């Protein structure tokens, strides 16, 4: 039964702690979101539950977590819509072959390394109810994701959105996210159909049909939102409510089709019109309540599921270290090498690699899905959350070292084009030699 | 085809195509790997309530008509929490089909359940992987209690904590 007092108390405590820790992290030069992620961990069994089990049991009894989860999931549904909204496929097209190569390598390198690591971790951290293919693909998808919103925020804070580094990073992160979510959708389908009477091909067929209807049908209707905005300079409350309704319907469709609510909301955002002022207007309408109220609940819920106590003993910490190492080498190294081969100066390429290694909130969203469908164990979930925190936390200081602002201001703002790619890709011949 | 495109294709094949082929190889070779047997989920406890009640700490468990425990598994390691039991969870290790777990209940719960201080509850069991649903057979005992006879139990898995494929 819903204990309203307990729920409001939980929300108050979460909001207060997220604000405090977020502010502290801002003071040390970190994005607020990293602090909020950390605050979530503090509220869970890793700190509060360990130091004050009585208070933890009173504040977050297991029976009350369903309501907190429901609220946080609504927040993530809206947030994924906003992430999709911020992604503009046109940006990648404008950047030519070099950006395509960089973005695809930044997915394949961590993906393959993660799958390779899965060979070692599967017998140690999984069980026989999970197929190796699902486990390895999930590890790959989880390690190849980039936190598009956190990355955009770091770039904005350093006034780098218009720089060559910024534009390439945004384009690559967008491709990584879309690809990562497609792979994750496949894994969810694979696991769900293994336990249902519906054939995998029926499910995949349904999803493809839905995506095609959305991209080639619904997206045309969505242009009316932009037309109205252009004519009136704003959208009425009814239209904003309709937009939200469409997000929820799309989310319900993907859930019903056998993937996850979040794919539908992400897709709805991705097919929305991409006119800059319109996008900014919609973001402003939905962002505040989502980011300040609902996402902290998601961080807290994730923190309540993260038990660092499960990572005990030397052996487990070695696994955790390996995960962080492989994630960083694959993502940072892969992006760096590819962008360097594409003609970017080495320090700037290192900066791009560092930015791409930011996983943040997107990683937590994926990990929660993985834990829900039980493709990863609680201990592995905790290790991966630590990896997400570590790689996101390291972004700002490492970027300041490898790629100081002064250097970036001097760099040309023009993104690598086909011409720049010639020299870069010619370097690829050296590799083959 | 222009030189740019040719170079792009070569670079793409080397940096993207080749790793994807490697991935296929990894997925194929991984299929032969064996992971520990799954014990994750909720297990319904079937035991003699009289014998269970005779154990220190056993009264609370025996009085519950739906005595059950939940196992949360991470590879060979797992945590086990008793329904109507102490808040703290037992940690255990799985070795093949054998599992061992032990728990030192918190002082307030021990007092309430009449355990006495410093008692350690121990569970040793064997999983029957062929049974559907999976079952466990073993003994529950209390260490540092020479007069306490171990109690045999059987447990049947009723559900995994969150059924696969659900959210």
Topology, pairings included?
The complex is a heterodimer of chains A (433) and B (167).
Chain A: H1 4-27, H2 32-43, H3 48-51, H4 53-59, H5 65-86, H6 89-94, H7 96-125, H8 132-144, H9 148-157, H10 164-194, H11 200-232, H12 237-257, H13 261-270, H14 276-305, H15 313-341, H16 346-356, H17 360-372, H18 378-402, H19 405-410, H20 418-432
Chain B: H1 3-30, E1 41-47, H2 49-54, H3 58-63, E2 68-74, E3 77-82, E4 90-95, E5 98-103, H4 107-113, E6 121-128, E7 135-142, E8 151-159
Antiparallel strand pairs in B: 1-2, 1-8, 2-3, 3-4, 4-5, 5-6, 6-7, 7-8
Q: Descriptors for this entry?
A:
heterodimer, A: 433 residues, mainly alpha, Na+/H+ antiporter like fold, 20 helices, 81% helix, globular, disordered C terminus, B: 167 residues, alpha+beta, Lipocalin, eight-stranded antiparallel β-barrel, 4 helices
Q: What summary fits the major beta sheet of chain B?
A: 8 strands, antiparallel, barrel
Quaternary structure classification: heterodimer
Task: Give me the count of strands of chain A.
Answer: 0
Provide the CATH top-level class of the largest domain in chain B. Mainly Beta
Widest β-sheet, arrangement of strands of chain B: 1-2-3-4-5-6-7-8
> Which architecture of chain A would the CATH scheme give at its second level?
Up-down Bundle
Shape of chain A: globular
What is the H-and-E element order of chain B?
HEHHEEEEHEEE
The N- and C-terminal alpha carbons of chain B lie at a distance of 50 Å
How much helix, percentage-wise, in residues of chain A? over 70%
């Amino acid at each position: 039964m819903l204990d309203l007092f307990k729920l409001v108390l939980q929300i108050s405590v979460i909001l207060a702690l997220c604000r405090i820790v977020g502010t502290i992290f801002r003071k040390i030069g970190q994005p607020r979101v990293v602090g909020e992620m950390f605050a979530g961990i503090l509220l869970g069994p890793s700190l509060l539950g360990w130091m004050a089990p009585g208070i933890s049991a009173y504040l977050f009894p297991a029976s009350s977590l369903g309501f907190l989860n429901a609220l946080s999931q609504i927040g993530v549904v809206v947030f994924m819509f906003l992430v999709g909204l911020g992604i503009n496929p046109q940006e990648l097209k404008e950047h030519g072959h070099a950006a395509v190569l960089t973005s695809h390598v930044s997915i394949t390198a961590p993906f393959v390394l993660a799958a390779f690591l899965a060979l070692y971790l599967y017998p140690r951290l999984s069980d026989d109810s999970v197929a190796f293919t699902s486990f390895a693909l999930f590890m790959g998808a989880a390690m190849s994701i980039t936190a598009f919103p956190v990355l955009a925020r770091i770039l904005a804070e350093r006034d780098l959105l218009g720089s060559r580094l910024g534009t390439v990073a945004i384009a690559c992160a967008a491709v990584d996210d879309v690809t990562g979510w497609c792979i994750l959708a496949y894994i969810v389908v694979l696991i769900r159909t293994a336990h249902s009477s519906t054939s995998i091909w029926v499910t995949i067929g349904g999803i493809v049909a839905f995506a095609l209807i959305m991209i080639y049908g619904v997206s045309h209707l969505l242009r009316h939102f932009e037309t109205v905005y252009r004519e009136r300079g704003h959208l009425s409350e009814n239209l904003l409510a309709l937009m939200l309704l469409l997000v929820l319907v799309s989310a319900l469709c993907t859930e019903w089709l056998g993937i996850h609510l979040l794919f539908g909301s992400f897709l709805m955002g991705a097919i929305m019109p991409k006119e800059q002022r319109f996008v900014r207007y919609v973001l402003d309408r939905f962002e505040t309540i989502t980011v300040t109220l609902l996402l902290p609940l998601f961080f807290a819920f994730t923190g309540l599921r993260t038990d660092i106590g499960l990572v005990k003993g030397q052996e487990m910490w070695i696994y955790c270290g390996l995960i962080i190492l492989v994630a960083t080498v694959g993502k940072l190294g892969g992006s760096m090498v590819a962008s360097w081969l594409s003609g970017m100066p080495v320090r700037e390429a290192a900066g791009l690699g560092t930015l791409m290694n930011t996983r943040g909130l997107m990683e937590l969203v994926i990990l929660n899905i993985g834990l829900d469908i039980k493709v990863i164990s609680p201990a592995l979930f905790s290790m991966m959350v630590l990896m997400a925190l570590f790689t996101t936390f390291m972004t700002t200081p490492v970027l300041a070292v490898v790629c100081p602002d002064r250097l970036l201001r001097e760099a040309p703002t023009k993104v690598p084009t086909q011409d720049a790619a010639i020299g870069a890709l010619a370097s690829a011949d050296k590799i083959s030699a | 085809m222009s030189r740019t495109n040719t170079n792009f294709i070569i670079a793409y094949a080397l940096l993207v195509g080749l790793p994807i082929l490697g991935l296929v190889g990894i997925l194929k070779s991984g299929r032969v790997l064996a992971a520990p047997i799954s014990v994750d989920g909720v297990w319904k406890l079937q035991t003699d309530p009289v014998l269970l009640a005779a154990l220190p700490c056993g009264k609370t468990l025996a009085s519950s008509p739906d005595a059950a425990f939940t196992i949360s598994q991470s590879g060979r390691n797992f945590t086990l929490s008793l329904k109507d039991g102490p808040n703290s969870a037992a940690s255990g290790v799985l070795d093949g089909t054998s599992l061992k777990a032990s728990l030192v209940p918190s002082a307030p719960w021990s007092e309430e359940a009449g355990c006495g201080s410093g008692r350690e509850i121990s569970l040793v069991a064997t999983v029957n992987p062929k049974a559907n649903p999976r079952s466990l057979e073993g003994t529950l005992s209390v260490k540092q209690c020479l007069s306490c006879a171990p109690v045999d139990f059987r447990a049947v898995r009723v559900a995994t904590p969150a059924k696969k494929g659900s959210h």
